[in-house]
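$ ./design --mode recover --in tokens.txt
reading tokens...
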């Protein structure tokens, strides 16, 4: 059984991004700039933003933090986004979710220039993803695909089961796995799925993005299954995935730990998206 070391692979990716940025800068390019908007004082969001800023420092991306109070209104956030859309030194805009109560996150995300949408949540990028066109893909699914590729795990011709259909993980992951260049046969499960255990047991590759700590146990998993656990759940015992790691790892041929699996890959994918948005913008002027 292999434990897929997302932390190590993510560090390799960050080093590659840093090298790419260093080379461009040597040729005279300006530094890439990433605006990070954090509204309110959600402790988990503060940790995520700190980790993203650390990754920016490591790769040579200049992060521009915009810390707004929990009382920030939708018009204020959209106003800030519009200003950032116009700024030449900003290549990516990251809007940390969740936003304060009463703020429509969809309206705020829609205001982001799709060329600067490094989270890949804008409908233009989601639409391009669905059509298989080049785009800024959502970071968690992109990070998962990269983790598989760099671990020499091919989903081609395999049965992939995703538990969770969110706009940021389940749906875009299904699109990536079913693309011609991946060729998995994909099933998406959700709270309306009548027999979740049966679906999980049919998977060669099981992707968990439900947000339910240790909900998927070893008895629900096929022998030799690859388990990619996207879940990050805060419990009194610490961070837990959606898989019950001890029993699932007895059946799986490979599994991602929580923490240290998909989480760091998401941030590495964000750095790749920021560098891509920067290079495209450099090229377009
Ligand atoms: N590693 C990372 O970088 C990263 C990034 C993003 C999210 N996450 C984590 O991933 C998890 C999922 O996040 P999300 O934003 O995608 O969550 P979400 O928006 O809450 O979606 C959860 C999905 O799981 C489904 N679900 C919940 N309970 C279920 C059950 N008992 N049986 C079948 N389906 C069930 C829901 O079904 P319905 O649609 O029917 O409600 C929904 O589609 C969370 O733990 C989150 O913290 C991690």
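writing sequence...
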């Amino acid at each position: 059984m292999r434990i897929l070391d997302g932390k190590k692979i993510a560090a390799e990716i960050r080093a590659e991004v840093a090298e790419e940025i260093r080379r461009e800068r040597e040729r005279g390019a300006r530094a890439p700039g990433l605006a990070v908007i954090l509204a309110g004082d959600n402790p988990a969001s503060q940790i995520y933003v700190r980790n993203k800023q650390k990754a920016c420092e490591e790769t040579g991306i200049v992060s521009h933090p915009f810390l707004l109070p929990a009382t920030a209104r939708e018009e204020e956030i959209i106003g800030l986004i519009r200003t950032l859309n116009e700024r030449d030194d900003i290549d990516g805009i990251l809007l940390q979710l969740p936003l304060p109560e009463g703020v429509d996150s969809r309206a705020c995300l829609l205001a982001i220039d799709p060329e600067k949408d490094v989270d890949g949540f804008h409908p233009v990028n989601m639409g391009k993803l669905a059509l298989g066109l080049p785009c800024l893909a959502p970071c968690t699914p992109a990070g998962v695909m990269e983790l598989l590729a760099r671990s020499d795990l091919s989903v081609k011709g395999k049965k992939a089961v995703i538990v969770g259909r969110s706009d940021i993980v389940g749906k875009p992951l299904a699109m990536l796995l079913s693309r011609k260049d991946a060729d998995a046969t994909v099933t998406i499960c959700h709270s309306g799925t009548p027999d979740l255990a049966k679906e999980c047991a049919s998977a060669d590759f099981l992707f968990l993005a439900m947000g339910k700590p240790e909900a998927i146990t070893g008895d629900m998993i096929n022998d030799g299954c690859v388990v990619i656990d996207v879940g990050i759940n805060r419990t009194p015992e610490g961070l837990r995935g959606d898989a019950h790691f001890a029993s699932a790892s007895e059946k799986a041929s490979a599994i991602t730990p929580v923490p240290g699996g998909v989480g760091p890959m998401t941030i590495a994918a964000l750095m790749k998206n920021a560098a891509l948005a920067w290079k495209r913008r450099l090229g377009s002027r």
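exit 0
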